[in-house]
Amino acid sequence: MLKRTVLALLGLVVLALSAAWLLRGEIALRVMARTMDRNLAATPSDGLPDGLHVALCGSGSPMPDPIRAGPCTAVLAGDRLFVFDAGSGSVRNLTLMGMPPARVERVFLTHFHSDHIDGLGELMLQRWAGGGTKSPTPVHGPSGVETVVGGLMTAYGPDRGYRIAHHGEAVVPPSGFGGVALPFPVAEGQAPVLLIDEPDLKIRAFAVDHAPASPAVGYIVEYKGRRAVISGDTDITASVEQAARGADLLVHEALSLRLVGLQKAAAERAGRANLVKIFGDITDYHADPEAIAALAERAKVRYLLLTHIVPPLPLRALEGPFLGDSRRIYGGPVRVGRDGDMISLPAGSTEIRHSNRLR
Question: Cβ(66)–Cβ(347) under 8 Å?
């Protein structure tokens, strides 16, 4: 009797599995529809406590990296979304991270190297077309941002016409196309420039050293008592240390002198003189992880997140050599950033949480 029961149950299981296999397409469509409903109704701050949330929409550099998009940092201050730099591939990451371009309030550029702006045109276009916005994207940056925004609007001009002709002005209002450049003056030794000044939110810019790429800036974001500093591309700079003093979070670019030295040696063996020169040049305007760790320790930063990772680290086992002695030098948590990493700083507390919105 028991044997018959077991056989009957097994038969039912086989039938159920067979039916599921035959109906797998229909099941997948239903799951897809529910997922679409959930995603389109969601807001970037869903499930997050009120506070300051800093996420890497791109943690890479100009060097090809299969797991890192171009430089991009997203900041949620409460339910308001801001983006700092927009490298290649980062705009797609924003959507995958539940922070679609249509929700972006403003963009802030640190400097105008191509890897920091080559996703800006896509971001402005998707914010317009996906959100039906009636005003262009505000783009803050040091002097020169006017050229960048104007050039991208010219390049995307034909596409503007296609979108309006296809979808209609009610869906893609012509007034919302492109961006509006908001330049600000900044100089070495100058006090940080206040760009947003509200009771709960302040965003400031300060000069950093990325010569010959100049002007170049970092940003300070404060929201309800929590503070994050974004270095932008820079060598070790006193202005970063000053801005980061006592900060909850420092997001700092990082280049390993040791690993780039291996790249340079390989280029020498291959007879690639142009790459030998480039690998040598880039070491003088970026910061090594150990030096960043020392800066963070001096500044009493509470959490250190490294981004703009140079060179690419396709294996996690390379993170140790990349960091060197950083964890011994700096007493707080240090993380080699990956796309999707989010550091949450809940308002009214000293808590620091890590999550990843792409996993």
Answer: no
